[in-house]
Amino acid sequence: MSEEQPHANLAVPAFRTEKVPKTQTQNGHGTVWRFGGADKAAKASTVTLRGVIYMLFDNCSKDVKKTILPLGHGDPSVYPCFRTCIEAEDAVVNVLRSGKSNSYCPGAGILPAEVIYCTITQTEHNNNTVVAVADYLNRDLPNKLTPDDIFLTAGCNQGIELVFESLARPNANILLPRPGFPHYDARAAYSGLEIRKFDLLPDREWEIDLEGVEAVADENTVAIVVINPNNPCGNVYSHDHLHKVAETARKLGIMVITDEVYDQTIFGDNPFVPMAKFASIVPVLTLGGMSKGWVVPGWKIGWIALNDPEGVFESTKVVQSIEQSLDITPDPSTIIQAALPEILEKVDKNFFAKKNKILKHNVDLVCDRLKDIRCVVCPKKPESCTYLLTKLELSLLDGIKDDIDFCVKLAREENLVFLPGKAK
């Protein structure tokens, strides 16, 4: 390994310790430039995972003899044992070699009948894809989805962005879980939605504090975000608890946004229950995708599913707003879109079982070893997702102020990168 490529054996962010010199706003002739960077994203960028991870990697040693162990970025795809299934790879290769998916694709999945000929083939691919996603989700739902209820996105994160932009009317607020996935906070801040937090209760299997939800909601609340299976807590909500969530949301007159991207990453005893089973009680907007289940986050394919038998999303113009947002945003890759029907049809359950068996083994191993470390406590053994949430007993640690201080010093001394809980 050459000195010019430190830690080239791992897929880690590039070190960013070099400071870029500031540019001047005036030239030698006294010209004042009338442009500058907008600060709209400034508040949002302070709560991103990426920013925290970059900061921790910048604190790692550049000594190539001390391998970096990146355990904070939630992407197992860099490890050979988590390579995606051959069926998924073959589907993408077949589409690529067909040469039929190199054109643009309609964002919302529907084009007018008078569409010009050169896009007809790609429109057919897109319609086939939304049909496949609807069929995939309908396996467990009493109220069946139609292709018109499905919108394809460039990963689950773009789905979050589209939905939040669609809901961001003046004075609106949204209810987010604590702990939670920080991209929700970042996108809410960027979209101008006021963030109100409700707690997840560690002594009750990380259930949602429904009394707390009612306490923080008001007449300007538009939605509650439910992450199930839950990242980062690693729990899977029961049928009864989700039913109570639906009843609470209906009482408050708000929609439920459910993030179910980890629905194929479960290794505990509790079965996964889709929130859309309760769509007859409350309108449910489901965010999903391939990134976690198939371990292919780089493929950037996800979906928004609207399960709403009463037509509330239509009457409140949520559907129209999402469609309008899709018209001005990038589409997911047409190659991956065209491959998706074959991937979903030929899904190999043995692949999921093997992946989840490895994750369970890792969880069991870590939880067993943590028993010997008094200053680190695991409130609940995870049964899903790829994170293990722990609590630091700061009274037993000398010279440690908080979890961020702990993670910075661990990165600096051991090249071991954990994600501090405050980033969640």
UniProtKB/TrEMBL annotation:
Query: N6-(pyridoxal phosphate)lysine-modified residues are where?
Result: 292
One GO-annotated biological process of the protein: L-tyrosine catabolic process
Keywords, sorted A to Z: Lyase, Pyridoxal phosphate
Report the GO terms under cellular component. cytosol
| Protein family | Belongs to the class-I pyridoxal-phosphate-dependent aminotransferase family.
Taxonomic lineage from the root: Eukaryota, Viridiplantae, Streptophyta, Embryophyta, Tracheophyta
Query: InterPro entries, alphabetically?
Result: Aminotransferase_I/II_large, PyrdxlP-dep_Trfase, PyrdxlP-dep_Trfase_major, PyrdxlP-dep_Trfase_small, TyrNic_aminoTrfase
Q: Which GO terms describe its molecular function?
A: L-tyrosine-2-oxoglutarate transaminase activity; lyase activity; pyridoxal phosphate binding
**Record's keyword annotation contains Methyltransferase:** no
Q: Which SUPFAM superfamilies match?
A: PLP-dependent transferases (SSF53383)
Q: Which cofactor does it need?
A: pyridoxal 5'-phosphate
> What are the Aminotransferase class I/classII large domain coordinates in residue numbering?
132-422
The name on file for this protein is C-S lyase
